[in-house]
């Protein structure tokens, strides 16, 4: 089912990766899109030539920027029909090696920013549901929300928290016309690791060597668009088989992971460091 083309959608983290692919697809459907990113140059490159799309330089980790972003969408368009919570950063390594500021950033962007931006947007989404029949929140989560493993311990914790937030929010607003979805990808070919370790690409041309291995971001963006047209709230893994990560929550599997992974902490540390060097060097 295709989302109505008269809707206004806010997409966070639209300068690259999943967010950029989602903005392009939504614009192709004729929706009005406002997207944000911290890097104004990359954001300008991303939205250039896209009809009905505007870009706002904003950091979702900043409370003032979050308020300014939501107020700006409503001032520009008079309504807000959907929010795509896509902005995210990662950090790979053991917790004991993680700087305190990195912990704060990952939590602020992936969890606090997403929750508070939704809080700010919710009055407008509820109004849209009353006036136009529906509104949507789409959270880009991760299979790490279901199976928390090193070297992504803190990242996984934020995604598990985001998944819990979505579940609770569904139980608040579904009956009032706001559909709340999650899209949970496996590894995706994006810049998230380089950005999380303080080495964001300076331009699109610089990005190629900093991309993590994984599926094409367009596959995730396609599911985001489908959520915005779905009749009921969705939780979908991308690819579908990645939903097997939910088995990590079963007690026998969880106990096996506890034993097996903790015994290999030194090897995990080395592999994570190697991956980070390749994408930030």
UniProtKB/TrEMBL annotation:
Query: Per the record, what is one GO cellular component?
Result: membrane
The record's listing under PANTHER family reads: DEHYDROGENASE/REDUCTASE SDR FAMILY MEMBER 7B (PTHR44196), DEHYDROGENASE_REDUCTASE SDR FAMILY MEMBER 7B (PTHR44196:SF1)
Q: Which UniProt keywords apply?
A: Oxidoreductase
Gene Ontology MF: a single term: oxidoreductase activity
Q: Which Gene3D superfamilies match?
A: NAD(P)-binding Rossmann-like Domain
Does the entry feature the keyword Cell membrane, yes or no?
no
Q: What is this protein called?
A: Short-chain dehydrogenase
Similarity-based family = Belongs to the short-chain dehydrogenases/reductases (SDR) family.
Biological source species: Blastococcus tunisiensis
Would you say which domain of life the source belongs to? Bacteria
Its lineage reads: Bacteria, Bacillati, Actinomycetota, Actinomycetes, Geodermatophilales
């Amino acid at each position: 089912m295709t989302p109505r083309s008269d809707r206004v959608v806010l997409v966070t983290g639209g300068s690259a990766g999943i967010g950029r692919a989602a903005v392009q697809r939504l614009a192709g459907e004729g929706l009005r899109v406002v997207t944000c990113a911290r890097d104004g140059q990359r954001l300008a490159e991303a939205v250039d030539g896209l009809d009905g799309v505007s870009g706002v330089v904003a950091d979702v980790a900043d409370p003032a920027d979050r308020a300014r972003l939501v107020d700006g969408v409503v001032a520009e368009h008079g309504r807000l029909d959907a929010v795509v919570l896509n902005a995210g950063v990662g950090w790979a390594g053991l917790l004991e090696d993680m700087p305190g500021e990195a912990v704060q950033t990952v939590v602020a962007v992936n969890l606090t920013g997403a929750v508070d931006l939704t809080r700010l947007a919710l009055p407008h989404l509820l109004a849209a549901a009353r006036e136009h029949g529906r509104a949507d929140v789409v959270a880009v989560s991760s299979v790490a929300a279901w199976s928390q493993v090193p070297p992504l311990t803190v990242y996984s914790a934020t995604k598990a928290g985001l998944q819990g937030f979505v579940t609770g929010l569904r139980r608040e607003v579904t009956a009032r016309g706001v559909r709340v979805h999650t899209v949970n990808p496996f590894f995706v070919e994006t810049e998230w690791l380089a950005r999380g370790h303080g080495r964001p690409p300076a331009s699109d041309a610089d990005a190629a060597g900093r991309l993590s291995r994984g599926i094409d971001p367009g596959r995730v963006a396609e599911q985001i668009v489908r959520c915005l047209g779905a009749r009921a709230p969705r939780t979908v893994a991308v690819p579908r088989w990645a939903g097997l990560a939910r088995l990590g929550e079963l007690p026998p599997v969880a106990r096996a992971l506890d034993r097996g992974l903790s015994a290999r902490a030194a090897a995990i540390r080395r592999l994570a460091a190697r991956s980070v060097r390749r994408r930030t060097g």
